[in-house]
Amino acid sequence: MDHNLFLYNTLSRTKEKFEPIHANLVGMYVCGPTVYSDVHLGNCRTFISFDLIFRYLRHLGYKVRYVRNITDAGHLEGDRDEGDDKFAKKAKLEQLEPMEIVQKYTIGFHDVLRLFNTLPPSIEPTATGHISEQIEMIEQIIDNGYAYETNGTVYFDVEKYVQQYDYTVLTNRKLEDMLNNTRELSGQDEKKGRLDFALWIKAKPETIMRWPAPWSVGFPGWHIECSAMSRKYLGDQFDIHGGGMDLAATHHTNEIAQSEACNHTAPAKYWMHTNMLTVNGARMSKSAGNGFLPGELFTGNHPLLNRGYSPMAVRFFMLQAHYRSTLDFSNEALDAADKGYKRLMSAMGLLDKLKVSNGADSFNLAEIRHKCYAAMDDDFNSPVLIAELFEIVRVINSIYDGKAKVSEEGLEKLKIFMKEFVEDILGLRNDQASGTDDIDDVISLVIKLRNEAKANKDFVTSDRIRDELNAIGIQLKDSKEGTLWNKI
Ligand code: AMP
Ligand code: ZN
């Protein structure tokens, strides 16, 4: 592989050259959703970002084992072992079994990700399906001296851990500050240290989801599932661990501690974190109540939305921002993305209609191709890639208008290139309602007739064609690249 892929590693806070532990193989673990409610668009942004990463690694020829878990147990409301179990609480509210909650929202999650055209991961393990692996790992951590049991609950001993290891590698925070930001222990606490966190939690009489373990009948803490499942499917050490940025400070920090305390090695070589989707500057989240559901976005059925947007336009909107930048959600930004997406798709549609000519191509595909790879090799820079693709859109439109030339061989290469970058890597497909090629052809013909009328200064006819198309929901737009159309 002659690629120089660089990716930003949260551990070193720099872009590093990507060198997998085993040549040509990549192990990637991404923290999946907690399936106790519908996924919101912020969650989707993280999974779409890792889909882009997965797709590009595969495109480069790596054999990727992509593991993305489903958290279906053990996630309490507070990140630090406080509050109710999220599933039990929701189950009570909806009068369902906790596993009915899990099933309902897992299906919903898959449906949404399918609409966004994300590829399924290679393995999608669940926390409840890996209780024995979690228990085994906790036993090893206790044996290694980094965890202790109090009244049936097992805690990770952070004070002991920091004597040997660095608990702040991911965030670069000071341990002192972390301590100061954590609630002081009271006489009632079972923990020895303020930063200690639960690996196994003893069930209360009302706890529904419970399993037998050496310490008590109970359930695993949230962080241990990812350490246990990543180890099982990817080994003690693997290449990439990812998730949203909000997970770095607690969940990922604790995952590293658990894996090191158990295996004596750091789990992942590269830690990748996606930035947040925001609404008017505030992080989109379930608890803040600003969590748009994908369905609301597609239908436009939400007070903050002027209209609905197609899943692919939304995917395009997300890919137009780099995964490490925040992305703010607004009607204007979505409108702009929708236009861009349609422009790209109409150019894709024109590819089959271009006429070839003899002689040299009027564009240098090799050069553009090189720039596209350079963008993706620079920490998966999809916005720069999209800007490069719009250069090609311009070329395609000029060829269609007869202002530029393409040879038969050049056109074949151009088609392969566009398929690779637009469909395989960016994962965009044409979801325009217009659908069939027949309609494309008919509208192209009508546009041609209108442009001829215009050229003959027969504006009555040309305006009539435009207005009548408009009346049946087809909008024409004259642009530098010729006349474009879309369904409204
Ligand atoms: P959860 O279901 O809350 O465990 O979250 C699933 C994934 O979505 C995690 O990787 C989170 O970091 C990520 N996530 C949550 N909120 C946002 C947001 N507003 N923008 C981007 N990613 C998010
Ligand atoms: Zn995780």
TrEMBL record:
The protein's required cofactors: Zn(2+)
Motif ('KMSKS' region): 283-287
Sorted UniProt keywords: Aminoacyl-tRNA synthetase, ATP-binding, Cytoplasm, Ligase, Metal-binding, Nucleotide-binding, Protein biosynthesis, Zinc
Organism: Sphingobacterium puteale
Residue intervals of the Cysteinyl-tRNA synthetase class Ia DALR domain: 371-439
Assembly notes: Monomer.
Main subcellular location: cytoplasm
HAMAP family named in the record: Cys_tRNA_synth
SMART domains linked: DALR_2
Recorded family membership: Belongs to the class-I aminoacyl-tRNA synthetase family.
Subcellular localization(s) per the UniProt record: Cytoplasm
One annotated GO biological process: cysteinyl-tRNA aminoacylation
Motif position, 'HIGH' region: 33-43
Xref: Gene3D superfamilies: Cysteine-tRNA ligase, C-terminal anti-codon recognition domain, HUPs
Entry's cofactor comment: Binds 1 zinc ion per subunit.
Chain sites annotated for binding Zn(2+): C31, C226, H251, E255
Superkingdom of this protein's organism: Bacteria
Enzyme Commission no: 6.1.1.16
Reaction(s) this enzyme catalyzes, per UniProt: tRNA(Cys) + L-cysteine + ATP = L-cysteinyl-tRNA(Cys) + AMP + diphosphate
Annotated ATP binding sites: K286
InterPro entries, A to Z: Cys-tRNA-ligase, Cys-tRNA-synt_Ia_DALR, Cys-tRNA/MSH_ligase, Rossmann-like_a/b/a_fold, tRNA-synt_1_cat_dom, tRNAsynth_Ia_anticodon-bd
UniProt name for this protein: Cysteine--tRNA ligase
